[in-house]
Write a sequence for this structure.
């Protein structure tokens, strides 16, 4: 029973990861027809609006799930069901008005944000449409956090998939409808950029509608579950009853460092675009030219990169409640085991994804976005390595938050951001590296966070990072996998076309990686079983005589 409980965080993390990967695959797929509708310039406006929305969401309510999850988990670990419910009530009382205020502020100051902050004036329409979603997410985030605090990631996972499905359909329909309006306005005002700008704004309608549907779905589950939960509350004999003031203080103390750290971590994209647009504008590029370059980077490469990054972004919040419980119980050994498993799990997935994207950069981008330009190939090949660093830095941030060291990731992110901005400006202004300067700066940023977080994890957990199975075996297996995939595609592409050649190359690469990883003992049968369809993978490995 204890072993089952100890491994539950990885099982729940796997559920949330699988759902998030499905959601991000859907998100990537719908961006293909969306890009065909709004173009690369429209992608720039759409990405800008979504990045602004993400930053404001982080400040207003996006980190509420983590705080609620941590505080609820700590109280449930002590059998304090009534106090855990009070955390939920206080979180709702706090997040709803904050979400409402941010929605209003975003709508009113959208023009200032687009024009003066990110130097992308026509993104204003998408930013305004997204404003109501901030309020809706303030409620949705609290309920998701409550379930996550119980170690139950299923409501969050299922609602994310539903949210993305609805978003995909409505975004495409909204873009198609609004781009016609934009074309009419473009003709009247003599500016062709209004057409993709309105198309991008139409696409953001999908976010608002999808969040509404997700909230309704989670709300129904919550109403059903809370009846059963109240029976547990009646059996709660805990004498200590926390005051609302104490809970508010605990939420704020928990969330402020996390919010600041997350904002600094995610604001890099907004700062990158603002500096990128400003510097390229001073170098003689037109707004249309630098928006097309940025649209390629943000609307194609980063959309693809976000699929494997879903692993770290889901394991981080799923590991927080279990680490908080282990830390509260002073079980450092268990905390180290959870940390090691999560890091290995993340590296085993993200390292081969990086190698695959480098080896098949052009074929994959042709397959997904019908883009065979040298620009998108170069961006993908140069940018893919930072995916591993971002995954590791996100996960180690979650580890530090789980053991209550909220300020450490914040300080580490501040240091990394300073180095990032210096690198970015120097590479753009003096190095003339164009979009590759953005990639370099982001790689440096994530590397610095990884190093500093790693030092802190070692210090507080006395954690010693295992190198061979976590990094070296996956890297070696991935290099061979990438070579095999590239060779297969090169041989087949001239005979059967890019689509079939790419799909076969990916399948061959995955098979080669799986065989090498298991054969070289990169994962144990226990770890392999924790993967999605893990028992099937173990059975296959045994039939192939890869494991006893």
């Amino acid at each position: 029973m204890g072993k089952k409980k100890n491994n539950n965080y990885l099982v729940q993390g796997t559920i949330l990861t699988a759902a998030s990967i499905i959601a991000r695959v859907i998100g990537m797929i719908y961006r293909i027809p969306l890009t065909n509708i709004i173009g690369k310039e429209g992608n720039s406006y759409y990405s800008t609006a979504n990045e602004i929305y993400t930053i404001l969401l982080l400040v207003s309510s996006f980190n509420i799930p983590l705080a609620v999850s941590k505080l609820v988990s700590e109280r449930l670990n002590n059998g304090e069901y009534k106090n855990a419910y009070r955390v939920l009530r206080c979180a709702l009382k706090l997040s709803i008005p904050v979400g409402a205020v941010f929605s209003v502020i975003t709508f009113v100051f959208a023009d200032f944000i687009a024009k003066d902050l990110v130097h992308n004036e026509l993104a204003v329409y998408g930013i305004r449409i997204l404003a109501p979603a901030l309020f809706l997410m303030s409620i949705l985030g609290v309920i998701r956090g409550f379930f996550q605090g119980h170690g139950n990631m299923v409501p969050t996972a299922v609602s994310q998939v539903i949210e993305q499905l609805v978003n995909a359909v409505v975004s495409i329909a909204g873009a198609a409808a609004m781009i016609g309006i934009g074309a009419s306005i473009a003709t009247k005002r003599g500016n062709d950029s209004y057409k993709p700008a309105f198309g991008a704004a139409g696409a953001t309608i999908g976010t608002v509608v999808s969040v509404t549907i997700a909230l309704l779905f989670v709300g129904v589950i919550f109403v059903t579950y809370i009846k059963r939960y109240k029976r547990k509350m009646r059996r709660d004999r805990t004498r200590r009853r926390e005051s609302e003031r104490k809970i508010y203080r605990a939420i704020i103390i928990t969330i402020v460092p996390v919010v600041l750290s997350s904002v600094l971590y995610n604001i890099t994209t907004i700062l990158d675009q603002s500096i990128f647009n400003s510097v390229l504008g001073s170098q003689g590029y037109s707004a249309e030219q630098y928006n097309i370059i940025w649209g390629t980077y943000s609307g194609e490469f980063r959309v693809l990169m976000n699929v494997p990054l879903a692993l770290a972004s889901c394991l981080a919040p799923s590991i927080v409640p279990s680490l908080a419980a282990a830390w509260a119980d002073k079980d450092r050994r268990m905390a180290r085991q959870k940390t090691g498993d999560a890091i290995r799990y993340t590296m085993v997935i993200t390292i081969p994804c990086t190698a695959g994207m480098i080896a098949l950069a052009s074929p994959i981008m042709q397959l997904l976005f019908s883009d065979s330009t040298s620009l998108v190939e170069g961006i993908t090949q140069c940018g893919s390595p930072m995916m591993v660093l971002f995954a590791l830095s996100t996960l180690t941030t979650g580890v530090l938050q789980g053991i209550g060291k909220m300020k450490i990731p914040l300080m580490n992110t501040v240091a990394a951001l300073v180095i990032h901005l210096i690198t970015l400006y120097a590479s753009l202004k003096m190095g003339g590296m164009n979009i590759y300067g953005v990639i370099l700066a982001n790689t440096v940023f994530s590397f610095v966070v990884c190093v500093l977080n790693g030092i802190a994890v070692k210090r507080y957990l006395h954690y010693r990072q295992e190198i061979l199975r976590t990094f070296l075996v996956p890297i070696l297996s991935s290099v061979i996998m990438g070579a095999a995939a590239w060779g297969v595609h090169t041989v087949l592409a001239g005979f059967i076309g890019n689509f079939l050649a790419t799909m076969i190359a990916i399948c061959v690469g995955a098979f080669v990686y799986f065989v090498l990883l298991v054969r070289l003992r990169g994962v144990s049968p226990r770890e392999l079983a924790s993967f999605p369809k893990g028992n099937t993978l173990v059975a296959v490995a045994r039939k192939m005589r890869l494991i006893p």
Observations:
- The chain has 18 helices and no strands.
- The CA atoms of residues 6 and 54 lie 33 Å apart.
- The first helix runs from residue 2 to 62.
